Amino acid sequence: MAKDDWYFFIGVVLAIAAFFGVDWKFLKGKITTPNSQQGRQIALLLLIVGSLAMSAFGWYNSAHPDVNAWRSSKQETIYARSYRNETVEIDGKIFDRCHFENVKLLYHGLRPVTFNQSDFKGELYFGSDNIAINQFMILKSAFDQLKGLIRLNNWVQMDKNGNLISVQ
């Protein structure tokens, strides 16, 4: 279970605990309660506030993912395998001396991928269900068509401010 899933789960548990434990008449001010009950009511009110805070935090993080981190950097090595007329999911794999013929390479963008001494024949399609990757490929294609009009330097890695990062 991912970190964001835990934030959501804890938020839901807090909300359910608060919902069933609150004396709603007390919160509306219609009745008074003894001091022994006030501690319980304050604790339950804090559970509600905590639930809302955790939910907001989880929502914000899920809407603003860290694009500089892989969900997992683990890679599975696939050695000397042949793929023909099929769709191959490539996330998290090292293809070592593999053969690809008339394949569709599907990249989700969730983990790194490596091709070592692999060969490709026939029709090769590379695609993604990741909107950011698709947009990048559209931009790359547009810039490739403008090669004669502008000078495009090599691909570089940048930080969020546009500063170049040396790749080691």
Q: Uncertain spans, ≥5 residues at pLDDT below 50?
A: none
Using DSSP, what is the number of strands?
9
Structural class: alpha/beta
Q: Quick check: average pLDDT?
A: 79
Compressed to H and E, one letter per element, the order equals HHHEEEEEEEHEE
The radius of gyration computed from the alpha-carbon positions, rounded to a whole number of angstroms, is: 26 Å
- Main β-sheet description: 4 strands, parallel
Strand residues, percent: 15-25%
Helix coverage percent: 40-55%
Distance between the termini: 32 Å
- Number of separate domains: 2
Number of helices: 4
Shape, principal axes of CA atoms: elongated
Structural notes for this entry:
The chain has helices at 3-21, 24-28, 35-63, 131-145; strands at 76-79, 82-84, 87-89, 93-96, 99-106, 114-116, 119-127, 157-158, 164-165. Helices cover 40% and strands 23% of the residues. The strands form 3 sheets. Strands 2, 3, 5 and 7 form a 4-stranded parallel β-sheet that branches. The protein has a 3-stranded parallel β-sheet with strand order 1-4-6, with no helix packed on it. A two-stranded antiparallel ribbon has the order 8-9. The relative contact order is 0.09. It is α/β, with parallel strands linked by helices. It folds into 2 domains: 3-63; 76-165, no CATH class.
Tell me the layout of helices and strands.
Layout: H1 3-21, H2 24-28, H3 35-63, E1 76-79, E2 82-84, E3 87-89, E4 93-96, E5 99-106, E6 114-116, E7 119-127, H4 131-145, E8 157-158, E9 164-165
Would you summarize the structure shown here?
This protein has 168 residues and is α/β, with parallel strands linked by helices. It contains four helices and nine strands.
